[in-house]
Design goal:
Elements: H1 3-9, H2 50-63, E1 67-71, H3 74-82, E2 90-94, H4 99-107, E3 115-119, H5 124-129, E4 135-141, H6 153-162, E5 166-170, H7 175-178, E6 188-192, E7 206-210, H8 213-226, H9 232-243, H10 245-264, E8 269-273, H11 283-289, E9 296-301, H12 307-313, E10 318-319, E11 329-331, H13 343-348, E12 356-359, H14 365-377
Parallel strand pairs: 2-3, 2-4, 4-5, 5-6, 10-11
Antiparallel strand pairs: 1-7, 6-7, 8-9, 9-12, 11-12
Helix pairs in contact: 2-9
C-alpha cells in the first residue's frame, strides 16, 4: 500500500472481535486469563492494551520499524529511550533541541550520572569529534525546534555505526509523511505525537519506533516497568488523527509556502527561517531526505519593531505553545517553549529574544495572510 493508504488501512484497521472499522476503545484495566500460568495475549493494561496496540502497530508500519511504543507524552517517550542506558554513559546531543528535552537532560538525566556533549549537528566533523569511548548514542532533531536546522541523518548514522553507537532522531517536525529516519540509518525514532500526528490539539502523547529487535525488547520492558503508557482513549484519538495526516499535511505545506513568500517580501521582516528557501543552510540536505519542507516557519522582525505587540495583534492565529494542529499557532520561543533554557545558552545557539515561531495550520490561505498583514500594519 502507498503511504496515504497505509495511514487509513495500516495497523489493525479492523477489529477482529466485531469487524468494526474503527478500533474500539478498550478501557478494561485487566483481562480474563483462562489458563493459570499460561501466556495470554492480554493480561494487564499497563503491559498491553488492544487500542494502544493498534496504534503502536500503525506507527511501526508508517516508520518502517519492527515495533512501536506509545507513551503518555513526547517527553515520556524520550525518557524511555534514554532509560535504555546507564550511569556513566555518554551521549552526543544536538545544540538546537526542544526545551523540554534540554530540561530532561540537564535537570533529570545528569543527576543519574549520564554525560552529554552538545554539538551543532550540521557540523559532521564536530559530531564525530564529540564521540568518546563511553558514547552510546547520538540524539538529534531535524528539522530542529525552533531554528529549523537540518541535519544529514544518513551521514550521522554512518558516523554512529562506524563507532558502534546508536542514532536516535526526533521526527516530530517532519513526521513520517515527510521523512523516514529509520530508512536513512537511524536506530530509533521518537515523536511528540501531540503535534502533527494527533493534529487536532486534543491529545498529549509520545511515540517511539525502532527497527532493531533487541532495542524493541528493551523499550517494551521499560514501557511496562516505568509505566508512562498512553491510555486507551488517547490511543484512539491519536489513531484517528493519524488517519488524516496525509490530507492535512498537503494543506499545511501549501499554506506554509504562501506565508513564506509573504514574509520574505515584507520589508518589516528581517529574517525568515524555512528549509524550503533555496538560500537556507541545509536546503539541499532537506530536499534530499524530506518529501516536503514542513509547515513550521520561524522569523524575526526588523530591529525596533515589537515582537510582543505583533503576536498580540493577531486575531486569527492563536498565541499558544505547541504546534502541528489544524489551527495556526504562534509563539516566542525565548519566553514560551524554550524559556527553560538559560538566556546565554539560547543566544549562543541562535535563539534570539525576538525569534517568532509560526506553526501554519490548514485555515484558508487568504485569511492567514490577511491576519499577518493587519498585525504588521499596526506596528
Amino acid at each position: 500500500m502507498k503511504f496515504n493508504t497505509r495511514l487509513i488501512h495500516g495497523g489493525y484497521s479492523e477489529d477482529p472481535a466485531t469487524g468494526a472499522v474503527s478500533t474500539p476503545i478498550y478501557r478494561s484495566s485487566t483481562f480474563h486469563q483462562h489458563i493459570l500460568g499460561g501466556e495470554p495475549k492480554w493480561e494487564y493494561a499497563r503491559t498491553g492494551n488492544p487500542t494502544r496496540a493498534s496504534l503502536e502497530k500503525l506507527i511501526a508500519e508508517l516508520e518502517g520499524g519492527v515495533a512501536g511504543f506509545a507513551f503518555a507524552s513526547g517527553s515520556a517517550a524520550i525518557h524511555a529511550v534514554f532509560s535504555m542506558f546507564s550511569s556513566g554513559d555518554h551521549f552526543v546531543v544536538g545544540s538546537d533541541v526542544y526545551g523540554g528535552t534540554f530540561r530532561l537532560i540537564n535537570k533529570v538525566l545528569k543527576r543519574f550520572g549520564m554525560e552529554f556533549t552538545v554539538v551543532d549537528m550540521q557540523n559532521l566533523a564536530a559530531v564525530e569529534a564529540a564521540i568518546q569511548t563511553n558514547t552510546k548514542a547520538i540524539y538529534l532533531e531535524t528539522p530542529t525546534n525552533p531554528l529549523l536546522q537540518i541535519a544529514d541523518i544518513e551521514a550521522i548514522a554512518k558516523i554512529a555505526k562506524a563507532h558502534g553507537v546508536k542514532t536516535v532522531v526526533d521526527n516530530t517536525f517532519a513526521t513520517p509523511y515527510n521523512q523516514n529516519s529509520l530508512q536513512l540509518g537511524a536506530d530509533v525514532v521518537v515523536h511528540s505525537a501531540t503535534k502533527y500526528l494527533g493534529g487536532h490539539s486534543d491529545v498529549v502523547a509520545g511515540l517511539a519506533v525502532t527497527n532493531d529487535e533487541a532495542i524493541a525488547k528493551q523499550l517494551a520492558f521499560l514501557q511496562n516497568s516505568i509505566g508512562s503508557v498512553l491510555g486507551p482513549d488517547d490511543s484512539w484519538l491519536l489513531q484517528r488523527g493519524i488517519k488524516t495526516l496525509g490530507a492535512r499535511m498537503r494543506v499545511h505545506h501549501e499554506n506554509a509556502q504562501a506565508i513564506v513568500d509573504f514574509l520574505v517580501n515584507d520589508p518589516r521582516v528581517d529574517r525568515v527561517l524555512y528549509p524550503g528557501l533555496p538560500d537556507f543552510p541545509g536546503h539541499e540536505i532537506a530536499a534530499k531526505q524530506m518529501k516536503h519542507f514542513g509547515a513550521i516557519v520561524s522569523f524575526e522582525l526588523k530591529e525596533g519593531l515589537s515582537t510582543k505587540q505583533f503576536v498580540e495583534n493577531l486575531k486569527l492565529i492563536d498565541l499558544a505553545e505547541s504546534l502541528g494542529g489544524i489551527e495556526s499557532l504562534i509563539e516566542v520561543p525565548a519566553v514560551m517553549t524554550h524559556g527553560s533554557i538559560p538566556r546565554e545558552i539560547r543566544l549562543k545557539n541562535g535563539i534570539k529574544d525576538e525569534l517568532i515561531r509560526l506553526s501554519v495550520g490548514i485555515e484558508d490561505e487568504e485569511d492567514l495572510l490577511a491576519d499577518l498583514k493587519q498585525a504588521l500594519d499596526q506596528l
